[in-house]
């Protein structure tokens, strides 16, 4: 092993590397305070090397930040093949997808909005969904994905989860690829208006907020649309951001639209957003089990129509999530 020179590194999972394929960037292991070269650029990441890492309990490897572009190109070129590689367990493939999606969406949410960097990262994420839509909406991968995507407090964790459920539910309605993708991107970005809001506010239960705090908080759909207004977001995605807190009984916000005034893909995001809220640990609440979340959604007659909830329950049942 070679001692690395001074550099900055970012963490990745070994699972993201396709076994027995050449990796176009150096891979390092962390050893105390330094990083040591494990697999040099251009060399094959063999199954034996992956096994060596697994046996040593190493779940994080590192890439030099200067190789970030090579890394993203590699992910783009290999993820679909990795997802379709049946020699890799479904659990590992689901973990690999989650790692890639989390890294890309974290970058997207941390960009200084709006600007060219945001647009570039948006396109990268869109490519990720486009290329993995088949994987995301098959029952078995979905069941495995929900084990990984349910973790994390950050807005982008919730965004990825909502996106996966929304892509699946849109496909229940037989929407075309473009509509599914637009709704997926709207679901991913639906809470982007929360980015930059006071941390203490975001850690408060919306139901327990003071009127002043609530007024600020409920601005987030409008802020979200404003930050995304600088590039051509499809109208379906814009609607999902703007209206994801509307309800068919007209008691939502920001416009109190009701029934079919709220477009169907937006109602899809409203439902998936609420389901993920209920099943995710938050600083102010504990996650409930999928069955209990669906019970609570069934009792809440005014969020979306019963038929939509029925389709949602059907897809979760098919994936054996409930
Ligand atoms: Fe929201």
From TrEMBL:
Record-linked PANTHER family: CYCLIC DI-GMP PHOSPHODIESTERASE PA4108 (PTHR43155:SF2), CYCLIC DI-GMP PHOSPHODIESTERASE PA4108-RELATED (PTHR43155)
Protein name: Metal dependent phosphohydrolase
Recorded superkingdom: Bacteria
Keyword vocabulary terms for this entry: Hydrolase
Span of domain HD-GYP: 133-322
Molecular function as annotated in GO: hydrolase activity
Pfam families referenced in this protein's UniProt entry, alphabetically: HD_5
Matches recorded under CDD domains: HDc
PROSITE patterns: HD_GYP (PS51832)
Organism: Pseudodesulfovibrio mercurii
SUPFAM superfamilies: HD-domain/PDEase-like
Listed InterPro entries: HD/PDEase_dom, HD_GYP_dom
Keyword Hydrolase assigned: yes
Matching SMART domains: HDc (SM00471)
